[in-house]
Amino acid sequence: MNLNYFYSTRIITGKNCVLNNYSHFRALGRRCLIVTGQSSAKKSGALKDVQSVLNSFNISYDIYDKVSQNPSIATCINGGKIAHAIEADFIIGIGGGSPLDASKAIAVFAANPDLTEEELYSVHWTNKPLPIVTIGTTAGTGSEVTSVSVITNSKGLKKSFKDDSIFPSLGLGDPTYTMSLSDEFTSSTALDALAHCIESYFNRTANDISMTFSIKGVKTLLKGLIALKEEGASNLSFEDRELLYNGSIYGGLAINATGTAFPHSLGYFLTELYGVSHGTACATFLPFFIEHNARQVPELSDSFFQEVGIKKEELIALISSLTPRFSLKLTDSEKKTLSPRWINNKNLIKSWGEIDSDFVYNLLTEMF
Ligand code: NAP
Ligand code: ZN
Fold first, then answer.
1. pLDDT tens digits, 312-361
2. Residue 299 C-alpha to ligand 2 middle, in angstroms?
3. Which of 56, 75, 277, 337 has its CA 20 to 30 A from that of 33?
């Protein structure tokens, strides 16, 4: 047996899980900062449920609704200042991966108001971050249940940090909140969840626990993804949304142990430079990653497809049918400008095979 897994979040999922588990909020303190995007917390119904729970315990709160997609470090520093100034005891993040990741960084800055950007990413802080509650409204990143946060740095690059101290105290997931997601983000976030499961499985750091989560995640997601393809996002039933949501949680539990692999590293530049949404950006490289692993680690690949119960070609066709097309032509000099990103890149190193700058250059030439 090959195990390596640490975990410290209470995860509760299911319809009405916020209202039904209100008692867990009481132990966290008397005052909190709620961190959200512009509208998803309201549209999903999650904010209303949270307000009702906080009001019932007389827990006072302020709302910081300034988090945009791919949240910036400046937004998090600002949120940390506000949380510090109001003397928040804990932070509640409501939203997709962007507000949830921001809530983790804000919890760190709130407890360490003089922390620099470099110290955040290198996990050099003195005081324990404030307790964090995460409430998901997308079925994608799994950030509700991970100790990872991805924040865009002051140079415009997406950069992650990971530490056991940012495990949410409480991660709540009611799939009902994802019913208001647009068609575009339903597909893109579902593909992100699938990418997490697959990149974690075909990862040099995978172990028996993470692989179990990956397999369960892919099997669960496949049913939802097939419904998504056949019926379209706007016709998805609650049960289909629940499958996508549960699959995203398994994906989070898998990457929590392993991190991701080269589709995520490559996807970042599509988001930063061309505005492609996170899930679509990663899924663009997923078919190639699947073929690559079939060549590099054929036995692992065979056992993966046997366990998840779909043929490689069928999975690739399903991913391709759900991945929005965008036209991009990269010049030789643009590809060369990107190359410093691929040196000592942790997610490239964790992928099977030799993934160096030349490999990425050739892949980008083939694709764009
Ligand atoms: P997101 O960036 O949080 O949200 C995308 C869009 O969907 C936003 O416009 C958001 O609106 C909207 N939205 C979210 N939930 C909605 C709902 N229920 N109803 C209506 N609209 C809704 O998307 P995401 O894909 O979940 O998160 C992506 C971020 O997570 C990226 O920064 C990525 O790098 C990061 N990530 C983190 C991890 C991790 O382990 N921590 C893993 C993978 C990815 P608002 O602007 O109003 O919120
Ligand atoms: Zn992702």
1. 999 999 999 999 988 899 999 999 999 999 998 988 999 999 999 999 99
2. 26
3. 277
The pTM for the full model equals: 0.97
| Closest protein CA for atom 9 of ligand 1 | 69
DSSP 60: E
* pLDDT higher than 90, residue 1: no
Q: Is 37 in the pocket of ligand 1 (CB under 6 A)?
A: yes
Q: Is the Cβ–Cβ distance between 210 and 200 less than 8 Å?
A: yes
Residue recorded with tokens 């964090």: 132
Answer for the pair 353, 324: CB distance below 8 angstroms, yes or no: no
Q: Is there a contact between 148 and 171 (Cβ–Cβ < 8 Å)?
A: no
Residue 171 near residue 221 (C-beta atoms within 8 A): no
Q: What domains can you pick out in the chain, each with its CATH number? A: 10-177 (3.40.50.1970), 181-367 (1.20.1090.10)
Question: Does 101 contact ligand 1 (Cβ within 6 A)?
Answer: yes
Distance 191 CA to ligand 2 centre (A): 9
Return d(Cα 109, Cα 169) in angstroms, integer. Answer: 17
Structure confidence by residue, pLDDT tens digits, 236-278: 999 999 999 999 999 999 999 999 999 999 999 999 999 999 9
Averaged confidence pLDDT in the chain: 97
Query: CA 284, CA 264: separation in Å to the nearest integer?
Result: 10
Ligand 2 centre distance from Cα of residue 321 (Å): 19
- Other CB atoms closer than 10 Å to residue 3's CB: what's the count? 9
Ligand nearest the Cα atom of residue 137: 1
% of the chain beyond a pLDDT of 70: 100
